[in-house]
Write a structure and sequence with these properties.
The chain is an alpha/beta fold and about 600 residues long. It has 19 helices and 27 strands. The chain has an eight-stranded antiparallel sheet with strand order 3-2-4-1-10-9-11-15, covered by helices on one side. Strand 9 and strand 10 form a beta hairpin. Helix 4 crosses helix 5, helix 8 packs parallel to helix 13 and helix 16 runs parallel beside helix 19. The longest helix has 20 residues. The model has no long low-confidence stretch (mean pLDDT about 90). Bound molecules: 5-amino-5-deoxy-1-O-phosphono-D-mannitol. The site of 5-amino-5-deoxy-1-O-phosphono-D-mannitol has 16 residues, from helix 9 and helix 16. 5-amino-5-deoxy-1-O-phosphono-D-mannitol (M6R) binds next to helix 9 and helix 16.
Length: about 600
């Protein structure tokens, strides 16, 4: 997919436009361009290759501008070249476009477009030509867009500059667009990442919305009238680097999750139409049959969850591996496979080496990364960013739930178009951030649990199904920052050995959504109880009804489903580890012996 950035500012905004394009470079970079309107005429720069080439052209042309639209291209119609590069400039308008216009040959006939006016191989130039005509006819940019949208079949997000106006006009269908506003400017982008760092609020445009964006106002229209859309807070990168009112970065990062999860989801999915939009690629995932996923540490736990999802919800074979193991094994990679690596930092050496191994085997590689200019991001064929924002605490929290969110969307995307699609899952993914907020409000209940763990020598987490990886994650988090011994187990495994460690008062934290595994889990709880273990239960309302009598402590969290429960149950395990570390007085953000980015073998 291509990337769009536009800014209408009281000042020259070329630098912000370029940095927006750099942030969107992961979406495609075979050519790029930008245009501005100055003294009522259009000026532009275009170049093929990376954004750095465009930056050189902009510098050579000494281009400045207050109202600018820009584009980074991933070719669909026509090869990468200057003539196919956006923006397309006509007498009355300039256009950048994401998406594909399916009926562009019909449109040429319908609007009697002269072939001699079309210089490129793109579907986009046809739209620029039509819009140019419609502006002459309607003499009103919004009416012209309304008319244009009625005739188009396909997916698009458009940003136009119009002769005689200092506004950017945008619209979308089937391809995302987000608006941002800040002091002295308003902006548009195909992706939150493309917005300037001093953006304050963002609005996700809905299907068929049209907006007029200038340096002081944003007006959004649906078919008939001006409408209001929900505003979200934008958090600039520098805010992530201070603790603010929090005692530790880890605490801040845990409490940031309602926002980081929602941002990550809305970046790839349309709430209204319940559709996932991944950046475009020439690969059709459904033509493959195998997926190999590798990562380390917490990121590996997200892969484990993904395996449960993929097996349950799609027909793919999926294998997962710890990167430090996969890279040295003699693995057979069949050509029907694509590979996914998951990494917060994008620099983890073992994960990077696995990516190299995928490449040597000539398989398509996807990276799910939080740091977009990292080595892993740069080397992979396709990037799915987690929008967690910089994560400072060594213990990964918000990056993990964003990894899970991206993987959940990826699985929903694999299902898209098939009959298996589960509407309940789709709906629940859009409200998960609200449930996370509710759990965070119960912080005192998790504090009470942590308080009672201060003097224990050993702690266990157990869960079944997709709760098993969360049990492992809970144990890792706890070990990492409290230095206490903690084990995560698939609950059914207890009787195969670890049960020998259960004695009077040993705490066993049970992750127990009321689902198809619940009754089996009850038996495991009784096995523990019978040996004197102390049961601490995290469950939902229905789950709580059945077990109160066995539990020493119980916290009820919102009811959820197979897709969203791993995201929700991650929050309690993070909070328990965090508060226990605070009670024990360890160095929460920089625990001993560890590093945030593991760039050694
Ligand atoms: O940057 P990465 O996601 O590749 O890092 C992988 C692990 O080192 C990391 O998840 C580690 O396990 C965390 N510190 C756990 O909280």
């Amino acid at each position: 997919m291509c990337g769009i950035v536009g800014i209408a500012s009281k000042n020259n905004c070329i630098d912000n436009i370029l940095s927006g394009l750099y942030s969107l470079e992961y979406r495609g970079y075979d050519s790029s361009g930008l245009a501005t309107i100055k003294n009522n005429h259009f000026e532009y720069s275009k170049n093929i290759g990376k954004i750095s080439n465009l930056q050189k052209s902009v510098k050579n042309n000494k281009l400045t501008g207050n109202v600018v639209i820009a584009h980074t291209r991933w070719a669909t119609h026509g090869k990468p070249s200057i003539k196919n590069c956006h923006p397309f400039i006509k007498d009355n308008c300039v256009l950048v476009h994401n998406g594909i216009i399916e009926n562009y040959t019909d449109l040429i006939n319908y609007y009697s477009i002269k072939q001699k006016n079309i210089k490129s191989d793109t579907d986009t130039e046809i739209i620029a030509e039509i819009y140019n005509k419609l502006l002459n006819e309607f003499n009103n940019p919004i009416e012209a867009i309304k008319n244009l949208n009625k005739k188009i079949v396909g997916s698009f997000s458009f940003a136009f500059l119009v002769h005689g106006s200092k506004s950017i006009y945008v619209t979308r269908r089937g391809s995302p667009l987000v608006l941002g506003s800040g002091e002295g400017f308003n902006a548009v982008s195909s992706d939150v990442l493309g917005l300037p760092d001093n953006t304050k609020e963002i609005i996700f445009l809905e299907e068929n919305d049209i907006a007029e964006v200038n340096d002081s106002s944003i007006l959004i229209y649906d078919k008939n009238q001006i409408i209001k859309r929900e505003k979200h807070k934008f958090i600039p990168k520098k805010e992530f680097k201070v603790k603010g009112n929090y005692k530790h970065f880890m605490e801040k990062e845990i409490f940031h999750q309602p926002i980081s999860i929602e941002d990550t989801i809305l970046n790839f999915a349309d709430k209204k139409r319940k559709v996932v939009y991944l950046p475009k690629t020439n690969i059709k995932f459904n033509e493959f049959s195998n997926i190999i996923i590798v990562a380390c540490g917490t990121a590996y736990h997200s892969c484990m969850v993904a395996k449960y999802w993929i097996e349950e919800m799609t027909d793919f074979n999926v294998s997962i591996d710890i990167a430090s193991e996969y890279r040295y094994r003699k693995n057979k990679v069949n050509k029907n496979s694509f590979g996914i690596v998951v990494s917060q930092s994008g620099e983890t050496m073992d994960t990077l080496k696995c990516l190299n191994k995928f490449k040597k085997n000539n398989i398509f590689t996807i990276s799910i990364v939080n740091v977009l200019n990292s080595s892993i991001a740069r080397l992979s064929d396709f990037i799915l960013p987690t929008l967690a924002g910089p994560e400072i605490g060594v213990a990964s929290t918000k990056a993990f739930t964003s990894q899970l969110s991206v993987l959940a969307l990826f699985v929903l995307n694999l299902q898209q178009g098939s009959k298996n699609i589960n509407k309940i899952f789709f709906n629940s993914i859009f409200s998960i951030h609200k449930s996370v907020k509710e759990i965070l409000k119960k912080e005192n209940e998790f504090k009470k649990i942590a308080k009672k763990l201060v003097d224990t020598k050993s702690i266990f987490y157990i869960g079944r199904g997709a709760m098993y990886p969360i049990a492992l994650e809970g144990a890792l988090k706890l070990k990492e920052i409290t230095y206490k011994h903690c084990e995560g187990y698939a609950a059914g495994e207890l009787k195969h050995g670890p049960l020998a460690l259960i004695e009077n008062n040993i705490p066993v934290i049970v992750l127990a959504p009321f689902d198809e595994n619940y009754s089996k889990l009850l038996s495991n709880i009784q096995e523990v109880k019978a040996r004197g273990g102390r049961i601490i239960m995290i469950t939902d309302r229905d789950g709580a009804k059945k077990v109160k009598k066995y539990c020493d402590q119980i916290v009820i969290i919102p009811k959820t489903n197979f897709l969203t429960s791993p995201i929700l149950y991650s929050i309690p395990v993070q909070l328990i580890a965090y508060y226990l570390a605070v009670f024990l007085g360890t160095d929460v953000d920089q625990p001993r012996n560890l590093a945030k980015s593991v760039t050694v073998e």
